[in-house]
Specification:
This protein has helices at about 80-95, 100-105, 105-115; strands at about 30-35, 40-45, 55-60, 65. It is of the alpha+beta class. Strand 3 and strand 4 form a beta hairpin. The protein starts with about 30 loop residues before the first strand and ends in a 9-residue tail after the last helix. It is globular.
Length: about 130
């Protein structure tokens, strides 16, 4: 669970009080995929104290958008590259499923970024 050592704490409404990674915010890395007026996509990468990585997405397209902040509920990956690629794959899916042609113009850019992260590098996870 995010590298936490303590037991989960629930508030009076049953919500998890210590279930987010806000204390790790200063260690997060922001990757701007694209920004074009009101259209944008940004990925936040975070390495948990347990050494695992997560990637979350915040995006805004013509008729849809969404986002999330790093939490214990995100899938964890062994490497930064795997977290980034998985998050880019989510974004590719959203853009490919958009019915608005204007949104699809970002697809080559996202796919190029995805392809470039697949290259081997000695310094990938440092």
């Amino acid at each position: 669970m995010c590298g936490y050592k303590e037991k989960p704490v629930f508030n009076e409404y049953g919500w998890l009080e210590n279930g987010n990674c806000m204390s790790l915010k200063e260690k997060s890395e922001h990757v701007q995929v694209f920004k074009d007026g009101t259209f944008n996509a940004e990925i936040m990468l975070l390495q948990h104290p347990n050494g695992k990585w997560i990637g979350t997405l915040c995006y805004s397209l013509s008729i849809c958008g969404g986002g999330s902040y790093p939490s214990i509920w995100e899938k964890q990956y062994d490497t930064r590259r795997n977290a980034l690629n998985a998050t880019l794959d989510k974004l590719i899916g959203y853009v490919e499923n958009s019915t608005v042609q204007k949104d699809r113009k970002y697809l080559p850019l996202i796919k190029k970024m995805r392809a470039s992260t697949g290259q081997l590098s000695l310094f990938d996870d440092f």
